[in-house]
């Protein structure tokens, strides 16, 4: 271990020691940004950047487990990303599939896909479904894998699901208009039954949500970190929790 790593380790323990676990967010959403820029800065390929980003996930979930987080949503591939060139998209999907298999094999997490399955290749769909089925009885953190995900698409899918559900029940348009409210729409989101994210973290220095969990993040706190996702450290995570706790204490009831 070099001196820099030692200093960061000591600092991380200091921050962790001062962390109030009663103020830890129960649901954290993460926009895993910066894989390609990290690879470019490191002299590697785009695929190597995505692979390094995928390898960071297990470490990140371990930190979350240590701090009593209950739900984590990882945005790994947006609907816009599906338009990337095939020579980049195909390897990226393979890396995502490997990451999902690894999460399922770990045995601690409950894996749940959020996104539109129909937009994804059959093999990716199969991997996501199998991981969800294999981990449904696990008692650890619920890990939402956002692949083929877009916030606007989610709301559109929720409304479509709501309309189809009530069409099957024979509900008239007038009756449906009376029924529709925030709670009813929430029941048809990809994350139905889950708490909304308390904290949304975006790495790489970009300060925008890009449509991530548009409906659910109405009251979320946001933390924008300059570090690229593959280089995200435990101390960066603890800083995000510390920042969240300070805001929570200041603005809470």
TrEMBL record:
The active site is at residues 33, 81. It is an enzyme of class 2 (transferase). One of its GO terms (molecular function) is magnesium ion binding. Keywords: Magnesium, Metal-binding, Transferase. Substrate binds at residues 34-38, 50, 78-80, 84, 202, 208-210. One of its GO terms (biological process) is polyprenol biosynthetic process. Catalyzes the condensation of isopentenyl diphosphate (IPP) with allylic pyrophosphates generating different type of terpenoids. This is Isoprenyl transferase. It comes from Streptomyces himalayensis subsp. aureolus.
